[in-house]
Amino acid sequence: MGPGATAYVQLSAGAALANLSHYGANTVMIVAAGAIPVLVQLLGSVSSAEVQLYAADTLKRLAKDTVNLVAIAAAGAIPPLVQLLGPASSADLLHCKTLIILETAAVALMYLVQNEANGVSAAAASAVPPLVQLLRPGSCERAPGVAVAALGLLAHNPNIALTIASAGAIPLLRHLTGPPAPEDVQVVAAATLEAFARAEGGPAGLVHEMSALGVASC
Questions:
Q1: What is the pTM of this model?
Q2: Which of 35, 39, 111, 199 has a CA positioned 20 to 30 A from the CA of residue 11?
């Protein structure tokens, strides 16, 4: 089902793996069969949107098991997942299929950045701007909650926290701390803002810079 396979084979095999990955016991066999590198390859732009979605969905489910976090990142999954988030100003956000792919990629990244090294890799791959974009009104229903969770994990790294703040996340996060945002999103948004405010131990000058960005007054 790799890039050399026909589009039909990729689509059929991708759909089958995505369905199988819904059951936890199957994910172990999928990983043991060596599927991770192939799935990562299928995230690329040469694949159809449907194949990309199935690949991202399967990787998302594999990433729920922390044992797989390093292997998925080592296979090179983070850059193409970031690419699936799209440019920060993408007009494609209006299309339903794109929203589903985008949300699936964001969830996969959310799981992956539980690992600190993966978080650094995600930031280096420019994951922050499109994740901040997902905080804006008009994103698909679940996207802001997923983005808040991912940014909250990334914000534990003081350098990445500053990048997130510089990308304009602070006012968007503040907006999500109250209605009409769902209660769970409100809680995570507030916790993420607190992570920004707790700049102690960060690099020299971080507290001052974040104060200038309006973070310290959260």
A1: 0.82
A2: 111
